[in-house]
Amino acid sequence: MDIREASDSERNDVLFVERAAFGSDCEAELVSNLLEDPSAKPILSLLAFDGDRAVGHILLTTAHLTNKQNSVSIALLAPLAVIPDVQRQGIGGNLIEQGLNRLSESGVDLVFVLGHPGYYSRHGFQPAGCLGFEAPYPIPEEHAEAWMVRALRPDAIDSAGGKVVCADAISQPEYWRED
């Protein structure tokens, strides 16, 4: 498996993976909008290939905290997609780790995600709300554990807090429901 930054010429591969993984155009449309959104930049878009076939994608976009006293750099992981016939083979985990490693090297301190707690906790994420990080939109109590954070610098969580403000394209209530 080869993981690399997605080029502009690979946008169709990115959108194919998103559609195949989620079975709809919703996430593909979100990704397309985020790739064009100046407020999402810098963006890290990684594609996983099995030979010539695109099989996975992760998108990480810039975000910030409302508490201006925070001097941490943050990003949002959304979405992560792996086409169904190759799921459960470690592709998603490899995309997460390569993405987080690249973000860490570029100086990002914290990464947030709204996702399945059982999956993302295996990749070092922990519930963010109880640590003082508010999601862009309220997360119902029964899904509070799905709002998660991973520190890329050891003391980053202790030195930050506040509400996460993400890119305009994903700053819509419908993207902040964990069903």
UniProtKB/TrEMBL annotation:
InterPro entries reported for this sequence: Acyl_CoA_acyltransferase (IPR016181), GNAT_dom (IPR000182)
Annotated ranges, domain N-acetyltransferase: 1-153
Domain of life (superkingdom): Bacteria
Pfam families referenced in this protein's UniProt entry, alphabetically: Acetyltransf_9
Segments passing through the bilayer: none
PROSITE patterns, per the entry: GNAT
UniProt xrefs under Gene3D superfamilies: 3.40.630.30
Any GO MF annotation of the entry: acyltransferase activity, transferring groups other than amino-acyl groups
Name of the protein in question: N-acetyltransferase
